[in-house]
Amino acid sequence: MRRMTFPRRKWLTKHVSANCGVGETLVQWGVLIDADCPRCGEEEDATHVWSCKQPEAVERWNSAVEDLAEEMKKQGTPLEVTEASCASLVAWKTGSPMPTIPRRIQGLADAVEEQTKLGWPKFLEGCISKKWRRMMDHYYIRRGSMRSGKLWAIKLVHKLWDVAMDQWKHRNSVLHETDHKLLTQKTDEGIKNIWEEANAITRTIRPRCFNTTTREDVEAQEFCKRKTWLNHAQNMLQRYERKKEQQQEQQG
Ligand SMILES: [Zn+2]
Predict the structure, then answer these.
(1) From ligand 1's centre to the CA of 33, what distance in Å?
(2) 235: CA distance to ligand 1 center in Å?
(3) Other Cβ atoms within 10 Å of 39 Cβ, number
(4) pLDDT value at residue 236
(5) How far apart are CA 211 and CA 214, in angstroms?
(6) 87 Cβ partners below 8 Å, 6+ apart?
(7) Alpha helices in the chain (DSSP H)
(8) 220-249 b/e (C-beta count within 10 Å ≥ 16 → b)
(9) What is the Å distance from ligand 1's center to 36 Cα?
(10) Does residue 96 carry a pLDDT above 80?
(11) What is the spatial distance between Cα 127 and Cα 104, in angstroms, rounded to a whole number?
């Protein structure tokens, strides 16, 4: 883990201990009302961030796995090993049957079998079967290569974290998009309501901000300006109402 930058290490440590900002944890903190996945709406736990089957999530997974395959190729990984691990990751994500593993590479089928027992989420977390490393050592020695299975395994784990991290980023981008949509909706409703209130007040006595612009002009502005205008208008209207109450009290 020493090779990683700090935020990434922190993220991974938290995720592996199922303590990151994923639905269930947020519910425990009371931040969210429910633990639904922002991408597919299913219940979300730490593993779901990776297993989510929303089409765009699957698309991103597949492309991240393609990058992983490229990296494995660079490490002198035999094609069968790359294909077996990548196809297994894709099968796990999509819930389709696990691929058949060719027997040509000694130890590959064993490594895949043990990884399936350990679980493919564990593979992503960097908890990979020792049989991968042993298989690669054996492969390199047979080919007279100076490469080591240990280094191969370290590089693999780093690349796997990229796959995992990309899903986490995607999940968050969808969540923020949804939040933004809700906020926009709330702001626009607020503008509609406040204009209805303001239109019920005589023009000469209502707050000035309703006379210096029109509802159409406010609504035509970009989101930030709409939001600022609404805050200001709400304050002005409150002040107006307090003043009216005071006057009524004095008169009464
Ligand atoms: Zn989901």
Answers:
(1) 17
(2) 40
(3) 22
(4) 93
(5) 7
(6) 99
(7) 6-16, 23-29, 48-51, 55-74, 79-94, 108-118, 120-124, 130-142, 149-199, 215-220, 223-251
(8) eeeeeebbebbeebeebbeebeeeeeeeee
(9) 8
(10) yes
(11) 25
Q: Please, which residues have CB within 8 angstroms of residue 124's CB and are 6 or more apart in sequence?
A: 50, 89, 160, 161, 163, 164
d(CA 129, ligand 1 centre) in Å: 27
Give the bridge partners for 36, in sequence order. 43
Ligand 1 geometric centre to CA of 242 (Å): 48
Residue predicted with more confidence, 9 or 85: 85
What is the whole-number distance in angstroms between the Cα of residue 89 and the centre of ligand 1? 17
- Report the separation in Å between the CA atom of 93 and the middle of ligand 1, taken as the mean of its atom positions: 11
Location of structure tokens 């990751």: 89
Q: Return the pLDDT at 210.
A: 95
Q: Flag whether pLDDT at 8 surpasses 90.
A: no
Residue closest to 123 by CA, chosen among 94, 92, 169: 92
Give pLDDT tens digits for 184-235: 888 999 999 999 999 999 999 999 999 999 999 999 998 888 999 999 999 9
